[in-house]
C-alpha cells in the first residue's frame, strides 16, 4: 500500500439526453408534449501514472476542467513529496470543475503504479493517459457507447495524433503535428486477431477497455521482470485475444513527443540482451498461449506455435527498422526533390485551393485514410473542435 494517499473526489451525474424531440399535437385546442427522455451513460476512469513531471500533469488536469470532462481522473504520483503537493493543491484549486483522485506512490515502479491505479478505478470503463498526453472526453464517451452496443469488441478508441513543441516542456509554440497511426482489428478468432496485432502493433490501454478486463490483464504480468514485457507488451496484447478493437471516426487522444519521455532500449537487440529477457519471454509466451488456447478452444501446442511466430514477426519488423534507422538507404532520384518542392510551392501559390483539394479529397481516396494531423488544424474540419482546447492548453500566450 502507498505510504500516503491524498484523495479529492467530486461526485457528479453524467446524463446523456436521448431522443430530444418534442412532439406537439393540437386536438380540440389541447397540446400534448412528449418530454425528453434521458438515460444514464457509464463513465470511464482515466488513469495517469507520473513521476517528476508535475507541470505536464497540471496542464492535463486544467485541460479536463476546461472541457468539463465527465470522466473521473486517477493520478498516481511517484515524485518527491514537495513536487507531489503541487498536483494535490492543483486538484483542490480546480474544485467542482473536475472529478479527480490523487494517490502518492513513492518508490513505485512503472508496473506497480499502473496496477495500483487500475485497481482504484470504480467505473465500468477505463483508459490510460500518459502524463504528457490527452484523452478527448467526448470521444471517450462515444467509445463507451460503442462498446456497450458491441459486446464482441473489447477496446475502442478514436484516431490519434502527436505533436512536438519548439520549446522543451509542457508549454510552447507548435513545431510539428503528425499522425499517430493504429489499426482496428476485427478478425473473428483470437488466433487471427493476435497475428494481426503483432503485424500492426499498438498500445491498447490508450483505448477504452472494461476495467475488470484491464485489471485481469495487468495482474497476469505480475511475475514478469522485464519492463517492456510486464508494463506494455503482455497487458496490451491480451485484449486482442478476447475481442475485437475498433477505431471510431473521431479524435481519440493526443500525444506529445519531447526529449524527456521515458527512455527505452535503443534497439530490439539491446532489449533481447537484457538478462531478464529470456525468462520474461518464457512467461509472456506461456501466458498468451494458455489464454489463446482457452479462448479459441484449441490445443495448447497449437496456441504456442501461433504466439511464437506472431511474436517473431513483431521482432523481425522492429529489428529491420533498427537496421534501416542506423543505415538509411540512399533515396532514389534525390536530384528531383528540389524540383518537385519548387513545383509544389509554385502551384499552391497560384492555386491556393489545390492544397485543400489534394489533402482533403484526393489523398484520402488514394490512401484510404485521412491525414489527421491536417484535419485537426483545419477550422472547417469536424475534428478541429476537439483539438482546439488541447492546443489552447499548451500554447503560450501571444
Q: Mean pLDDT across all residues, rounded? A: 85
The number of E-state strands comes to 13
Helix content: 40-55%
Helix and strand composition category = alpha/beta
Q: In percent, how much strand structure appears in the residues?
A: 15-25%
Low-confidence stretches: 3-38
Task: Provide structural commentary.
Among the domains are: 59 residues, no CATH class; 61 residues, no CATH class. 46% of the residues lie in helices and 19% in strands. The strands form 3 sheets. Strands 5, 6, 7, 8, 9, 10, 11, 12 and 13 form a 9-stranded mixed beta sheet that branches. It has a two-stranded antiparallel ribbon with strand order 1-4. Strands 2-3 form a two-stranded antiparallel ribbon. The protein starts with 14 loop residues before the first strand and ends with a helix. The protein has 398 residues and is an alpha/beta fold. The longest helix has 27 residues. It is globular, with a radius of gyration of 24 Å. 36% of the residues are buried.
Describe this structure in a few short sentences:
This protein is an alpha/beta fold and 398 residues long.
List the helices and strands and how they pair.
Elements (H helix, E strand, L loop, with lengths): L14 E4 L5 E4 L2 E4 L3 E4 L3 E7 L3 H13 L5 E6 L3 H14 L5 E5 L5 H11 L4 E4 L5 E2 L1 H13 L3 E13 L8 E6 L10 H10 L8 E3 H9 L7 H16 L1 E13 L11 H5 L4 H20 L3 H27 L10 H14 L2 H15 L4 H4 L8 H11 L4
Parallel strand pairs: 5-6, 5-8, 6-7, 10-13
Antiparallel strand pairs: 1-4, 2-3, 8-12, 9-13, 10-11, 10-12
Helix pairs in contact: 1-2, 1-14, 3-6, 5-7, 5-10, 6-7, 7-9, 9-10
Amino acid at each position: 500500500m502507498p505510504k500516503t494517499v491524498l484523495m479529492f473526489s467530486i461526485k457528479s451525474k453524467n446524463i446523456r439526453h436521448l431522443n430530444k424531440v418534442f412532439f406537439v399535437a393540437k386536438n380540440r385546442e389541447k397540446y400534448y408534449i412528449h418530454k425528453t427522455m434521458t438515460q444514464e451513460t457509464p463513465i470511464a476512469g482515466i488513469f495517469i501514472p507520473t513521476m517528476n513531471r508535475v507541470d505536464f500533469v497540471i496542464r492535463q488536469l486544467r485541460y479536463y476542467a476546461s472541457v468539463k470532462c465527465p470522466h473521473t481522473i486517477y493520478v498516481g504520483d511517484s515524485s518527491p513529496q514537495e513536487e507531489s503537493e503541487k498536483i494535490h493543491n492543483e486538484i483542490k484549486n480546480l474544485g467542482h470543475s473536475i472529478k479527480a483522485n490523487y494517490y502518492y506512490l513513492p518508490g513505485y515502479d512503472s508496473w506497480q503504479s499502473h496496477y495500483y491505479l487500475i485497481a482504484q478505478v470504480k467505473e465500468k470503463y477505463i483508459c490510460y493517459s500518459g502524463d504528457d498526453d490527452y484523452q478527448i472526453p467526448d470521444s471517450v464517451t462515444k467509445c463507451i457507447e460503442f462498446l456497450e452496443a458491441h459486446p464482441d469488441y473489447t477496446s475502442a478508441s478514436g484516431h490519434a495524433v502527436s505533436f512536438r513543441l519548439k520549446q522543451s516542456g509542457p508549454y510552447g509554440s507548435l513545431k510539428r503535428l503528425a499522425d499517430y497511426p493504429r489499426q482496428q482489428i476485427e478478425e473473428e478468432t483470437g488466433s487471427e486477431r493476435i497475428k494481426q496485432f503483432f503485424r500492426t502493433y499498438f498500445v491498447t490501454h490508450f483505448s477504452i477497455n472494461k476495467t475488470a478486463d484491464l485489471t485481469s490483464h495487468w495482474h497476469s504480468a505480475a511475475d514478469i521482470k522485464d519492463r517492456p514485457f510486464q508494463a506494455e507488451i503482455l497487458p496490451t496484447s491480451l485484449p486482442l485475444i478476447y475481442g475485437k478493437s475498433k477505431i471510431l471516426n473521431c479524435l481519440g487522444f493526443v500525444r506529445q513527443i519531447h526529449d524527456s519521455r521515458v527512455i527505452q532500449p535503443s534497439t530490439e537487440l539491446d532489449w533481447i540482451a537484457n538478462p531478464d529477457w529470456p525468462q520474461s519471454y518464457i512467461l509472456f509466451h506461456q501466458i498468451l498461449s494458455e489464454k489463446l488456447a482457452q479462448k479459441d478452444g484449441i490445443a495448447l501446442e497449437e496456441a504456442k506455435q501461433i504466439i511464437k511466430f506472431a511474436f517473431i514477426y513483431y521482432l523481425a519488423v522492429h529489428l529491420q527498422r533498427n537496421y534501416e534507422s542506423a543505415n538509411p538507404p540512399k533515396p532514389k532520384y534525390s536530384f528531383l526533390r528540389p524540383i518537385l518542392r519548387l513545383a509544389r510551392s509554385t502551384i499552391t501559390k497560384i492555386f491556393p485551393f489545390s492544397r485543400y483539394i489534394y489533402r482533403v479529397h484526393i489523398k484520402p481516396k488514394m490512401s484510404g485514410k485521412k491525414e489527421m494531423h491536417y484535419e485537426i488544424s483545419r477550422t472547417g474540419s469536424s475534428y478541429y473542435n476537439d483539438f482546439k482546447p488541447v492546443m489552447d492548453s499548451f500554447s503560450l500566450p501571444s
